[in-house]
Design brief:
Length: 389
Amino acid sequence: MTPFNPLVRDTGTPPIPEAQGWARRYDGLRGPLIDMSQAVPGYPPHEDILNHLSQAAGTLAAARYGDIYGDETLRQALAADMSSRYAADVKVDEIAITSGCNQAFVLIAMTLAKAGDNIILPAPWYFNHQMTLDMLGVEPRALLCKAEKNFIPSVDDARALIDSKTRAIVLVTPNNPTGAIYPREVIKAFAKLAQEKNIWLVIDETYRDFLNATYGAPHELFSAPAWQGNVLSLYSFSKTYCVPGHRVGAIIGGRSILDEIGKVIDCVQICAPRAAQHALAWAIPNTTEWRAANTREIEQRAKAFTSAMTKINGWRLDSIGAYFAYVAHPFSDTPVRRVAERLAEERGVLALPGPYFGPHQETHLRVAFANVGVDAIETLPTRLLGFTP
């Protein structure tokens, strides 16, 4: 038989289905499964978003091809929203709508790097970023982020990793998996480093809408000299608008790089569903209060999880923010994968083991606390009482 592409075959098995298999072995005796594995909105979409989706899906326009860069109405709405949020002047022609934020990263990786090049990823990393680079033959170069530094990446450490094959540095803030929120000064320093080294800075801001004034003003890169030069931003509509099944994301960048990305979009035709684009163009300016209420709800879940962790002996909450927490377990002699598997099977608590997110992660689990309500979170101390893997 003709062999498969080794770059695909050697890529690890998708981790979410594996973890969900552990949960299927849970007997339910301790109460309903508390699923904190995959980041999924723990509340439904706005009713009017569903209405707009259903109405648009029945139109002829939604069944036809749209603009390569996405429907202009959605791009206009996102440009206005980002210009307001970042006190900048983001233009319509600086935005491309993609079939989800993961696809946005695939497009960027294909455009910026070729096989044999490398892209620096903060580690622990978002496993889909690493898998994408592996499949393309691009080295995912790990920028190790440490618990004692609140999982904030170091510019000096990144500088030491850059060589003639480095094409980009990726930042993920708020971070997946750790929840860490990068300070403005750190983001600015990375932008300066990328300019100095003539490489790209890619900022994945999938969870930015779950930040509030507590964290201060957002970064200033959209109004800085680097903008339209070597800065790219990624955005996802999935979590904010509760529509992950519709796969809508965005790339925000200068016109020259979007021209190149447009070639890839046109070739592989991975445009977002047009009915979803129509609904989201309406939702951006019309669901402000609903989104703010959801952010407040996520904050309450974060507070509840923080409180619950103080009642669980031996476990340590090392980082929390936006959607995720990164938790150190107390079983130093047990592989963390075993810890996660037994938690799911015996206690009905599903979280992901740290090694899914890169090397040197044996001591941690990623917890998507935003998936579940405060009532479920408050039961965690009882669920974990007396647990041993």
